[in-house]
Specification:
The protein is 49% helix and 16% strand. With 883 residues, the chain is of the alpha+beta class. Belongs to the cation transport ATPase (P-type) (TC 3.A.3) family. Type IIA subfamily.
């Protein structure tokens, strides 16, 4: 369709766009602009996964043995245990998966749309048929639309066509009915991205009616891959199954050779096999990582995958942009230097359009200063940003540096909208390129004359101006004097007498003939208040901070020094990097933490250099060309406020506040998460050793069985599970950011970890057996002795949680109050243990007997002494332990 036909077809308006009322009406009629995902949480699949595991099969086998032995009560009780095991795993995993899904749904894309004659930003889901959208470099395209106006516009359509090359778009192109998608040069499509220029387009389809919506099944065929941690835990689980089978076989053989009843021995062997496997192991990774994702979201970090959460804890290098991450991203023009060698000071901070302009301390009228007036007009007309006032808060839509120029214009009563009403008409544009480091626009005036306006890096525009050496030296000195004060310097120029047609080719030809440099603007962007402390915390944690910026090397060095980045004396520029091999850069990067005048391509070079040294790298980015570096880094971090939609799509994590301190919080949480998983494994494995060793020792020493099969199940499925799962909510230990980063290749269970588990388990087991032997020696009934042993194991394991909470100290301190889930779990486990001892029903089913206070005194001693011994061992200096 032609532009006129598409306007009529959609009942849109090229001047004002849709009205808010009409847009709301269409949203109600056509629905939200959402591609339905096929990856919904399947309740039945989660339930089936919890039924289809070795624990359930072993419990069913134990139940069958009980029925065959003529013990239906125990058989039915084990079936109840099956139900408990399945339901507890199902509920925990379902809640965790729902939590992950809800957090992922928080990641929203936004679009620029013209409504009621104003360009505004809205959630892409609220776009409707007939909306007039504005697309520029870096934007993700979230609806199918017909282009009605374009300037040097191109988009990547590989999601639809598979072609990696950008497609040039033409608004006046007319397609035939059978033209393929890849050849429709007047259309843009959902799932593609703008790589150059800008365009206005009218939406022709949203949601499932888009081309990508029609083939959305193609997007849902990817199987979910396991995270490295889940793979490690899965291997551990399989190793434990082999160990459990071995234990069961040994116990059965020893018992049969000792003349014990075969059914009883087999049942104990099966129950011990169950005891050897931590029942919640399959779900612990998902649950703990999901809790971490939720915690990070409260700290303004939206993590898109579970694997990214665990990788954060291993980060060794953070490569961060300067602007907006280390700094406030409140670009304010403070100084203007004009071509007639005058310097002006600008009052005010941020985007508030108020403040005097003065020269040598005297307030002046900008329009009376010819050179200054020309510079401000050029800066305003060579910008696409707008300033909006929302609830008395001014913010920029578009590039923050351009926002600073727009505010400067407002302070001088020079506004683009007024200039355009007075006859200035834009006829051409060369969008800013991080490679070329300049932007240019072309305008026709009311009298028919034309002018080009340029802004960009001072060195680039000085080269274009064709000055003599003396003039170059003068301007370079001004540029460096501004940079030495920590300012970002922007050069502004014009070409009068431009006689081209506004095409990029004609504009570039005129640029080669020379430009009139109007002067420089010195822009400040002060460091964030919290960034210095955040960088100190990061470096104390053994993590390097590398600052990457497009600014002048001197500006970069000053900011780096202000925020406390180590190795801040040496600076490498993008031009120098271009002349280095990756191996050379890998060597230089070991002693360099500042990179200036950097392009997005240089960012990828930095990532590759760090990969050579096996660093775990987090890389920030906000532009469309940052996507390769974000993909190449171990953790790609996009800016939620100033980041392009393409950068957000390519990232693993999005900062909703663009702050460096948020990255540090996320790294800390990543460490906490992995440590909590370690604590979980430590606690449950120690508890399993207790039961296995107790049974093995009684068989070897020909003692009566100290604990029954159902009592072992009770410990594993009731008493231990709640405290173990509550470890997912443990707060980080106070010194967690004073430790070196974790090696991502290191196994959770190593020799030292196994010795700690075995040692703790042996102590609790011996304490329980000591109580059993004491009961036998006192002539107590076997039922009383078993109940005492059973309760000693239960309370010994609950006391053990305080050995687990902290690596080097006792776990009862004020930090306990920060984990109410653990307090609740401990109280619940204690109450349930008392219930199983004193309620007649459980006395019959599980084989317990009520106990008097003296016996409880013995139980407390037997369960508490192992914890005292563990803590006493921790007090021994490390040197003495090794000796």
């Amino acid at each position: 369709m032609s532009i006129d036909e598409i306007v009529r077809h959609t009942n849109s308006n090229l001047d004002s766009g849709l009205s808010s009322e009409e847009a709301q009406k269409r949203l109600s009629e056509f629905g939200a602009n959402i591609i339905e995902s096929g990856e919904k949480i399947s309740v039945l699949k989660i339930l089936f996964d919890n039924i289809n595991n070795i624990i359930v099969y072993l419990l069913i086998l134990a139940s069958v043995v009980s029925f065959l032995m003529g013990d239906p009560i125990e058989g039915f009780a084990i079936i109840v245990a099956v139900v408990i095991a399945v339901l507890s795993g199902f509920i925990s995993e379902y809640k965790a998966q729902k939590s992950v899904e809800s957090l992922q749904n928080m990641i929203k894309t936004v679009s620029k749309v013209k409504r009621d004659s104003e360009i505004i930003e809205i959630e892409s889901s609220k776009l409707v048929f007939g909306d007039l959208i504005f697309i520029e470099t870096g934007d993700s395209i979230t609806a199918d639309a017909r282009i009605i106006e374009s300037k040097n516009f191109a988009s990547i359509e590989s999601a639809l066509t598979g072609e990696a090359e950008a497609v040039e778009k033409e608004h006046d192109f007319l397609a035939e009915d059978d033209t393929t998608i890849g050849d429709r040069k007047n259309m843009v499509y959902t799932g593609t991205a703008a790589t150059r220029g800008n365009a206005y387009a009218i939406i022709t389809a949203t949601g499932m009616d888009t081309e990508i919506g029609k083939i959305s099944d193609m997007l849902n065929n990817n199987e979910k891959s396991s995270t490295p941690l889940e793979i490690q835990l899965d291997r551990l689980g399989k190793a434990l199954i082999i160990f459990a089978a071995f234990v069961a076989l040994v116990v059965s053989i020893v018992g049969i050779l000792s003349g014990d009843e075969i059914y009883s021995v087999i049942k104990i062997g099966v129950i011990l096999a169950i005891a050897a496997i931590p029942e919640a192991l399959p779900a612990v990774s998902t649950i703990t990582l999901a809790v971490g994702m939720k915690t990070m979201s409260t700290h303004n970090a939206l993590v898109k995958s579970l694997s990214a959460v665990e990788t954060l804890g291993s980060t060794t290098v953070i490569c961060t942009d300067k602007t907006g991450t280390l700094t406030e991203n409140q670009m304010t023009v403070k100084v203007v230097y004009t071509s007639d060698k005058k310097q002006y000071e600008i009052e005010g901070l941020g985007y508030v359009p108020k403040g005097d302009i003065s020269e040598d301390g005297n307030v002046i009228e900008p329009k009376s200063e010819s050179s200054l007036n020309s510079l401000i007009i050029a800066g305003v007309l060579c910008s696409n940003a707008t300033i909006v006032n929302e609830n008395n808060e001014y913010r920029v839509i578009g590039d923050p540096t351009e926002g600073g120029l727009i505010v400067l214009g407002k302070k001088a009563s020079i506004e683009k909208s007024i200039l355009e009403k007075n006859g200035y008409k834009r006829i051409g544009e060369i969008p800013f390129s991080s490679k070329e480091k300049f932007m240019a626009t072309a305008y026709m005036h009311e009298d028919g004359t034309k002018t080009m306006y340029l802004k960009g890096a001072p060195d680039v525009l000085i080269d274009l101006a064709n000055f003599d050496n003396d003039k170059i030296k003068e301007l370079t000195g001004v540029n460096e004097s501004f940079a030495e004060k920590g300012m970002r310097v922007l050069a502004i120029a014009e070409i009068k007498g431009y006689d081209g047609n506004g095409s990029e080719e004609s504009m570039r030809i005129h640029m080669t003939k020379g430009i009139d440099l109007l002067g420089f603007t010195g822009i400040i962007d002060p460091p964030r208040e919290d960034v210095k402390q955040a960088i100190k915390e990061t470096q104390d944690a053994g993590i390097r901070v590398i600052m990457i910026t497009g600014d002048h090397p001197k500006t970069a060095r000053i900011i780096a020094d202000k925020v406390g980045i180590s190795n801040a004396t040496k600076v490498i520029t993008g031009k120098e990097m271009d002349n280095m091999s990756v191996d050379q850069l890998a060597k230089e990067i070991m002693t360099t933490s500042i990179f200036a005048r950097v392009s997005p391509e240089n960012k990828l070079q930095i990532v590759k250099a760090l990969n050579i040294d096996n660093q775990v790298t987090a890389m920030t980015g906000d532009g469309v060309n940052d996507a390769p570096a974000l993909n190449g880094a171990d953790i790609g971090i996009a800016m939620g406020i100033r980041g392009t939609e393409v950068a957000k799509d390519a990232s693993d994590m999005i900062l909703t506040d663009d702050k460096f301190s948020t990255i540090v919080d996320a790294v800390k949480e990543g460490r906490v998460i992995f440590e909590n998983i370690e604590k979980f494994v430590y606690f449950l494995f120690s508890c399993n050793v207790v039961e296995i060793l107790a049974v093995l020792l009684t068989i070897i020493f020909r003692l009566p069985m100290p604990i029954l099969a159902l009592q072992i199940l009770w410990l594993n499925l009731v008493v231990d599970i709640l405290p173990a799962m509550s470890l997912a909510w443990e707060p980080g230990e106070s010194d967690i950011m004073q430790r070196k980063p974790r090696d991502p290749k290191a196994s959770i269970v190593n020799k030292k970890f196994l010795l700690k588990i075995a040692g703790n388990g042996i102590l609790i087991s011996l304490g329980s057996l000591a109580v059993f032997v004491y009961g036998i020696s006192q002539g107590y009934s076997i039922e009383i002795c078993r109940t005492m042993t059973f309760s000693t194991m239960a309370f010994g394991q609950l006391f053990h949680i305080f050995n687990v909470r902290h690596k080097n100290s006792f776990g009862i301190d004020k930090s306990l109050l920060r984990n109410p889930y653990l307090i609740g779990a401990l109280v619940s486990s204690v109450l349930l243990q008392l219930i199983v001892v004193y309620v007649p029903f459980f006395n019959t089913v599980i084989g317990t007997m009520p106990l008097d206070s003296y016996k409880w005194f013995i139980i407390v001693l037997g369960s508490l002494i192992p914890t005292v011994l563990v803590q006493s061992y921790r007090l021994i200096p490390t040197k003495a332990k090794t000796q």
